[in-house]
Description:
By secondary structure, the protein is of the alpha/beta class. It has helices at residues 2-16, 51-66, 116-122, 137-150, 192-200, 219-224, 246-253, 258-278, 295-308, 310-313, 336-343, 350-359, 396-402, 406-410; strands at 38-46, 72-84, 89-98, 103-104, 107-108, 124-129, 155-161, 206-212, 229-234, 286-291, 323-324, 333-335, 360-365, 387-388.
Amino acid sequence: WKNILWVLMLVCFSACSTSDDPKVEPTPEPEPVETAPLTVLAYLVANNNLDDDLLANIGTMYDGLATMNKQATLLVYWDGITTIGDNKATHVILKYEADGKGNVNGLPALEADAPLDDVLEVGEIVKEYTTQLSTSKEVMTKVLKDMVALSPTERVGFVAGSHGSSWLHTIYTTGSRAFGQDGKGTDNSIVLKDIVASMSSTGKKFDFLLFDACYMGSVEVCHEFKDVAKYQIVSAMEVPAFGFPYSSFMKYLYQGSVNGYKQVCQDYIDYYEYILENESGSAWGTVALVDSKEIGTLVQEIKSEIVEHKSELSQYNPSTLQEYGRSGGPYLSYDLGHFIQDLNDGVIPPSFKAQMDKTVLYKGCLEKARASYQDYSVDAENYSGLGIYIPTSKRPKWNEYFKTIDWYTLSGWNEVTFSWNF
């Protein structure tokens, strides 16, 4: 009995006593991080005088990615004068993956505006190519297919950064065509149809196409890309060499939504307005967000206006219209809305205006501008978001090429018999 009593006392003592050790709480499960709905693909052709600026764009893209609170992937194709990597590669795909918790490619994010060498060192070279012409259809097709295959998401968006010349196959003495300038020579750029074919070859309809290039905000350009990109972010005029301020709006690109793309456009205008008011650098700009599915109907409205006014257009002088491209390509682009208004005694027809409002979801411009070599100020009242080419006696060679593109017939210009007298 003594043994039994002793055991019972121990049990009671154990049950009634408290431990000096604190109670161990279970480790909470980490909050799941949402994945961005799309991957951003950037195709940067910088084997030209934009090398430093486009390289800087990789840095600002990184800065924007690093602040994401979602998992997101950025794939950058680089073809520039500056080489990347220990083996001095000139044509590579760089991958940056943000985990939404402050890390990029498994490393703590660099401080904003970190040295570009550090940003490039963080980038993972996932594909390397031998020397190639990045503005050939075959190369662009190959690279875009590789980028889509590397994308962790079904949805993708496309940033195209380099020189641009709207629909025109060549505008500068260097031979620069509609997009890009890969070194020097007569075949160093790529026409719109070849870009469309390359994008289409991926089997994807891109969520957005952002042209960080001059003059790509024309109705002729937007029409070409209406079937391969749902939305287009473009500028009717020259884009400053620095380009788009990616650090502030990458999170909006990754939203994959109309509101996000509108914010991208707003950030573009806000950035250059800030430069204009607070710093000494060049500052000007226009930007528009275009809904591709509405472009077909807009073309019908344009054709109706051109055909209806074909007799007066045969001798039309556009010199009173708001013009874009005055620096590198005078006569290349005039404001579309201002043009239609001028044809109709100062009043834009209601049906045309309604369709423009459906097509151009956002339009922004800097009314004042600062540049050392050109006045880039824009009259906001005569800014509709898109430009248009109006055939002119000043550009006979352009007119010959204009007749070879589909737009010439689709828009009704083929029904105008020109007899210029100015």
